[in-house]
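We modelled the chain as a single entity of 307 amino acids. Its sequence is:
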Amino acid sequence: MPIQLVTTVAGLKAESARLLGAKQGVSQGLVPTMGALHEGHATLARTAVEQNDVVVASIFVNPLQFGDAVDLDRYPRTLDADLALLEEQGVDLAFAPSVDEVYPGGEPLVRITSGRLGDKWEGASRPGHFDGALTVVAKLLHYGTPAAGLPAGPAGSAAGSLPAYRAYFGQKDAQQLALVRRMVSDLNFPVEIVGVPTVRATDGLALSSRNRFLSDAERDAALVLSRALRLLEERANAHEPLDLDSALAMVESQPLVSLDYFDVVDPGTLEPLAENCRETPFRGEALALIAAKVGPVRLIDNVPLSS
């Protein structure tokens, strides 16, 4: 069935309810995006389609999470290509609202705050970014909540109860994923957050909408980010000391790369695990985070570590 496009919250709710009723659906998935979609987003959409009866994807470039107006204006808008990609994955409904639809009174006077979890790493480099991101995610999660009075949810639930509700986020934005999970838990949102592994090009570079701004030389240089992460992953899998210093030296040897941060952290708190990095064999669970500018383009990447 061709994908349907709606641009208002009322239209989203009406079409979502209609589709759930027509399909006798018991689950709905939401895939929030800012557009400029690539295979990473396609993987999110396919995962949602596999796990739900009805899938909604949002396309909204959120001005609240851009600290630089030039960066906001530069962000690519590719709605027609985005809709084609989502339709190929089997997404039912695309929600592409205007800024006025999402923020009808202008910038909101009350916002979600990311707290201590959002002050570090990306939050330290991009002040206010996560407050803006969580504010719009909260709104999108509310918009996408399935309507009541539809067929029963999981086996044993009563007729007329809410269908199961899931939202899908990529592991590449690991700090955002951790913050969304914490927001949903702390504020009792009725949604399951599903993290989907990072999708990479064949050479290892994490897919990103920003990759299109890299020159050929810069793209080659950017590969050092995933190589350094892979080195830590191999050492963790072998139960060896991670030796973060040598991985750091690998990144710093690339002249086109200006490192912002590179560390190994607790996956839940995002606090550094320095004692688990250098001299003792790695044990447990961790997350290696990296961010750098490659030429003028800022890239982030990460890899989960376990032993």
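As a brief sanity check on the tokenised model: The CA atoms of residues 47 and 213 lie 28 Å apart. The first strand starts at residue 4 and ends at 6.
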